[in-house]
Write a structure and sequence with these properties.
Layout lengths: L1 E2 L15 E2 L5 E4 L3 E2 L11 H18 L7 E8 L5 H11 L7 E6 L10 E9 L2
Parallel strand pairs: 5-6
Antiparallel strand pairs: 1-2, 3-7, 4-7, 5-7
């Protein structure tokens, strides 16, 4: 993954404004992952839910032959924006903070189950 120089807008907080993909890379796109354990349980709170989301993303990326260094884009769907610092702290445990992926965040009225706070999709590019 190569983060490209971009003259403006202001510096982003923990994400890249644009990321290039090497020619011939294999593109991997995950479905949105939520904070649901294998037994169907949902942890409470932003930090616990975000950590489980990123652990679930780790598993599905690995199943497709990818890892966090390959992730070029994250899309977040959140039910509120009040605890984004907790989301960022957990994200930074997984992504390369020196070359973070591009990101989008959308606040939604709700997710498919009551109690879910966050859903994240990942796009990865695995070198050929």
């Amino acid at each position: 993954m190569a983060t490209l120089d971009f003259p403006s807008p202001p510096a982003p907080n923990g994400f890249s404004p644009v990321v290039g993909i090497a020619p011939g890379s294999r593109l991997i796109i995950t479905s949105g992952q939520v904070a649901m354990a294998a037994d169907g349980s949902i942890p409470a709170g932003w930090e616990a839910q975000t950590r489980l989301v990123f652990q679930n993303l780790t598993a599905v990326l690995a199943a497709a032959g990818a890892g966090w260094p390959d992730v070029v884009k994250l899309t977040y769907f959140v039910t509120g924006v009040g605890d984004l610092p907790a989301v960022r702290r957990v994200r930074d445990e997984f992504v390369d903070t020196l070359q973070p992926p591009a990101s989008s965040l959308v606040q939604v009225a709700g997710l498919f189950l009551p109690g879910l706070l966050i859903e994240v999709e990942a796009t990865a590019a695995v070198p050929a």
